[in-house]
Amino acid sequence: MTKTNINWSGFSKRSFDERLPIIERFQLLSPENLKHLTADHLLPIQTANQMTENVLGRFALPFSIAPDFLINGSTYHVPFVTEEPSVVAAASFAAKIIRRSGGFKTYIHNRQMIGQIALYGIDKIDKAKTTILAKTEELLATANQAYPSIVKRGGGARQIRLEQKGYFLIFYLTVDTQEAMGANMVNTMMEALVPDLEALSKGHSLMAILSNYATESLVTAKCQIDSCFLSRDKEKAQQLAKKMELASQLAQVDPYRATTHNKGIFNGIDAVVMATGNDWRAIEAGAHAYAARNGSYQGLSQWRFDQSQQLLFGELTLPMPIASKGGSIGLNPTVAIARDFLNSPDAKTLAQVIVAVGLAQNFAALKALTSSGIQAGHMKLHAKSLALLAGASEHEVAALVKTLLADKPMTLEKATTYLSKLRQSIDNGST
Predict the structure, then answer these.
(1) Which secondary-structure segment (H or E) carries 168?
(2) Catalytic hit among 179, 245, 270, 279
(3) Distance between CA atoms of 98 and 76, rounded to whole angstroms?
């Protein structure tokens, strides 16, 4: 749990230099991480060179904070890494509204990863199944012997199952990976099992690898929002709640809408996954597969309006095999800052925070889409991007944005021209 008695009003309008003293005053970061936050190069080139191949430099993205997420009674100030301007503002807005209605309730269904070995060339598949299942305990022991350190930490191989799919007999192993995402761990176990499985099945192994379809790592986030927080006008609030419910239903029946619906969810999820040093490609792959689990691609969240209670209920469930240790988590100083903001959560806590963020992001998007539309806010942000591309300084942006919004369509050429005129008027006024 982090500090809750912080007034974040106007934080987004403050300059970068004005925000840091607030972080320091409320001790949201350790002194060491506060120092790292202000450094020009957070990831040393020497470290970057060891993390991947053919390194030529480092690529920077904005590091932001979305404050005051109330999750299971605890407050979290959530780090975001994203270049999309509206994401942090939308998440912060949603967190504020949902907090007023009691915050998010989240829970873990399970926290295990799945590995698979695809066997082929088996003459008698039914006999192979029986033979393999009879050796369940021995196979689990072999998997654990391949990675004994996870067993010492309370994890390890837990269960096996077999499925025949076309030409293949597929062996699945579930593994409790504890605080790690567990790719290397599971892959090591799977490869260790190949000789035994080939001997037992009298077939051949095509591949042995972790699956990113992490159906044994599901997390659910829920919230309820009093309709009075949707609009001061009671009739408009009810109308908006009903439209948000319809928007949720649309994402269940139309894959074109479902794709964009889920992309909005991942605007927030990816931003936190990246900030905490995790593999966002794996998270997205598993979630998109889960969205198609019923035979067609559907929206991951569900919204329902209860008119009798005047409450809008939201729910999001998806695989979230997030890690608190391993990979680049211990190497990148920015990840240490992100985890410091979150009070160094374990993997299960972090997974719940991330899914709550996804639900918040989805709420903000649906509210905008079914009321004022999404372009009003986006056009202002687009104008700001054009102003920056034209070379406007921090003190020139606001005036230039106002001018651009009054002269649509906005272009970089217009931004450059208006910036020149703005500077000329300032020069003339000072002489």
Answers:
(1) strand 168-176
(2) 279
(3) 13
Longest dimension (CA), the chain: 94
DSSP string, 346-396: -HHHHHHHHHHHHHHHHHHHHHHHTTT-SHHHHHHHHHHHHHHHTT--TTT
How far is CA 17 from its chain centroid? 28
Residue type for 92, please?
Answer: S
Q: Bridge-partner residues for 311, per DSSP?
A: 226, 306
Q: Is 415 helix (H, G, I), strand (E, B) or coil?
A: helix
Q: Which residues of 258-286 are buried (b: 16+ CB within 10 A; e: fewer)?
A: beebbebbbbbbbbbbbbbbbbbebbbbb
Cα–Cα distance between 5 and 150 in angstroms, integer? 39
Pairwise CA distance, residues 377 & 64, whole Å: 19
Out of 36, 84, 96, 284, the active site residue is: 84
Tell me: pLDDT of 347 over 90: yes
Nearest CA to 343 out of 107, 20, 27 is that of: 27
Catalytic residue among 222, 242, 378, 380: 378
384 is catalytic: no
Question: Are the C-beta atoms of 15 and 355 separated by less than 8 Å?
Answer: no
What local confidence, expressed as pLDDT, does residue 1 receive?
47
Reply yes or no on whether 378 is catalytic. yes
Lowest-pLDDT range, 86-95, 349-358, 392-401? Answer: 392-401
Residue type, 260: T
Q: What is the per-residue pLDDT across 20-57, written as a single tens digit (0 to 9) for each?
A: 889 888 899 888 888 777 665 578 888 888 888 898 88
Catalytic residue among 124, 263, 408, 421: 263
Q: pLDDT tens, 361-393? A: 999 999 999 986 555 666 777 788 888 888 888
Beta pairing, strands 311-319 & 218-226: antiparallel
Backbone angles phi, psi at 377, to 5 degrees: -70, -35
Chain centre distance of CA 62: 16
Which residue's structure tokens are 């944005």? 401
